[in-house]
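All the exercises in this workshop are built on plain-text protein records. There is nothing in a record beyond a sequence line and a structure line. A learned vocabulary of local backbone shapes supplies the integers on the structure line. The question running through the whole workshop is how a given chain folds. Here is such a record, shown just as it appears in the course material:

***
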Amino acid sequence: MIPVAKRLEKVDLSDVRKMFEASGKNDINLGIGEPDFDIPENVKNAIINGLEKGFTHYTSNMGCIELREEISKKLKKDNSVSVDSNSIMVTTGASEALFVISQSLFNKGDEVLIPDPGFLSYKACVELAEAKPVPFEASFGNDYKAKYEDIQDKISSKTRGIILNSPTNPTGAVMDKEDIKAISDLSIDDDFIIISDEIYEKIIYDAKHYSPAQFSENTLLVNGFSKAYAMTGFRIGYIAGQSDIIDEILKVHQYNTACASSISQLGAYEALKNSDKYVEDLVKEFRRRKDLILSGLDDLGLECSDVQGTFYVFPKVDDVVDYVEKALKTGVVLVPGKGFGESCKDNLRISYANSYENLEEAINRLKTIG
């Protein structure tokens, strides 16, 4: 067998995808983080019109200027962040954004703080850049909200960056403003970069989203269209930050994907322009499902933290492996928490991005395993 690069030795395949592959035809999959909604009708029509007009060719490596200008307006309106369109790069989803940032900014031996619990791509992206991921634990006692105190003691002379995610996958936590501000100030004092993954910012309930880009120029804001607009398959996202850093990240993006899909960029532009009502309705339905799943978990006797955003809950169970296996036998697919950090071995991630009726049925099935 031809040997592979040594940097792959520490990287595992996603547990989320493993459970997705294990799902049978009649199973209720509560593992995958994908909204079950169709894309907005106006976005669909814009894409069809774009195809008919032949909008199917390369765009600028940075992305269509019209889309970048619209993103700039969105950041000003929604996030109180002033970023020129020349400081915004359109990517092949937020996943590519995280990867190209890591490849562009981190060197071997650098330390990058990552949340624990946290989205499993963070650790992998840091390790693929041959840097060292340093977990900071967001505790159950604080409803999994990352606190300034959790991070302050982890900073060292080797710290090159920190990844923040709020609202948070897998816990549904939303960070408090004072912690965002304190960490932002720290990034300036200690001269490190904040990578702020804000992909769930619009799926938020009884809380308010704050971006560290409001408080520190040492921020690369990452966002996309997969979650709020159900455009997962379109693979469209963006990075916003200082133009000189974006210019360097462009080198990796250019040789990695050249540019994001032209027709996806057209759909993203239309989503930003004319889909506010769609997002409002989507969040309203997710809130309804959240209330159902939290009530169901309570009936099942599973301990769960408060949920303020995303479409995930992160309950604790006595024996995760046993519970996941028993759930699968009833036809319910769940994801063990261990893939999201060292502190998560007693947790399950449950996605309620499934129909209300399926969630009711899943809860009824889980009641049979005790």
Remarks:
- Residues 22 and 248 are 40 Å apart (CA to CA).
